[in-house]
């Protein structure tokens, strides 16, 4: 697959050959769903917590005598049956993460890249270099028509570009090792530098 390479100012910078085994696959929704679900579950904090009957702040005294009242038998007011009592089998802190084979994760990233290439939402730029001024970069991004874009650079992101992009709404920047299925699918446009393409192809061989 051959794609044109552009500069940040919109000028042409030749073309680049993209490997069909990474950018030319037929996207599979089931694979993408599995990887995104794995990512989001792993990121979930799992700090939800309710109080059990041993943690609520009522007295532990038996509320009335066992027999003779004509009512049900009760101990203290912390029982789950009472208002403001403890919660029975409520959520406790835990990890929501589950395992996913490395091969599936790798394949998911390939299918995410291929889905952007197939829909024409993939842009290759020569490099991500900027003066560090947000206003200048924002003007370039607007002229290129990127509204919700993810920029993937090589092994390291250009420091000035990252600083300029930090305050631009809808523009995210990641190094090639940070490329992931969820962030790629979340954005409308995927922008990869030439260095980023080389790094991704080396990573996904």
Shape: elongated
Mean pLDDT, as a whole number?
Answer: 93
Beta-strand percent range:
5-15%
Distance N to C terminus: 16 Å
The SS-based structural class is alpha/beta
Task: List the strand order in the largest sheet.
Answer: 2-1-3-6-4-5
The number of distinct β-strands equals 6
Extract low-pLDDT stretches. Answer: none
Radius of gyration: 27 Å
CATH superfamily of the largest domain: Ribosomal protein L4/L1
Which secondary structure elements does this structure contain, and how are they paired or packed?
Layout: E1 2-6, E2 12-17, H1 20-23, H2 29-43, H3 102-118, E3 122-125, H4 134-144, E4 149-152, H5 159-165, E5 171-174, H6 181-186, E6 189-193, H7 194-203
Parallel strand pairs: 1-3, 3-6, 4-5, 4-6
Antiparallel strand pairs: 1-2
Helix pairs in contact: 2-3, 4-5
Can you give a write-up of this model?
The protein has 205 residues and is an alpha/beta fold. The protein folds into two domains: 150 residues, 3-Layer(aba) Sandwich (Ribosomal Protein L4, Chain: A), CATH 3.40.1370; 41 residues, no CATH class. The protein contains seven helices and six strands. Strands 2-1-3-6-4-5 form a six-stranded mixed sheet. The longest helix is centred in the middle third of the chain and has 17 residues. It starts with a strand and ends with a helix.
């Amino acid at each position: 697959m051959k794609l044109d390479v552009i500069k940040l100012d919109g000028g042409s910078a030749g073309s680049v050959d993209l490997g069909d085994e990474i950018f030319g696959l037929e996207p599979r929704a089931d694979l993408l769903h599995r990887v995104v679900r794995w990512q989001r579950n792993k990121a979930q904090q799992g700090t939800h917590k309710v109080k059990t009957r041993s943690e609520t702040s009522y007295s532990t005294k038996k509320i009335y005598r066992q027999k003779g009242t004509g009512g049900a038998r009760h101990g203290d007011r912390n029982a789950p049956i009472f208002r403001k009592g403890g919660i029975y089998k409520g959520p406790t802190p835990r990890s929501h993460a589950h395992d996913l084979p490395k091969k599936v994760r790798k394949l998911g990233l390939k299918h995410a890249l291929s889905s952007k290439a197939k829909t024409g939402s993939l842009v290759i730029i020569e490099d991500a270099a900027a003066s560090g001024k947000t206003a200048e970069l924002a003007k370039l991004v607007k002229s290129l028509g990127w509204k919700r874009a993810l920029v993937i650079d090589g092994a390291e992101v250009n420091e000035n570009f990252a600083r300029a992009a930090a305050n631009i709404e809808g523009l995210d920047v990641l190094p090639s090792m940070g490329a992931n299925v969820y962030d790629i699918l979340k954005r409308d446009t995927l922008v990869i530098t030439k260095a980023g393409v080389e790094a991704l192809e080396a990573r996904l061989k």
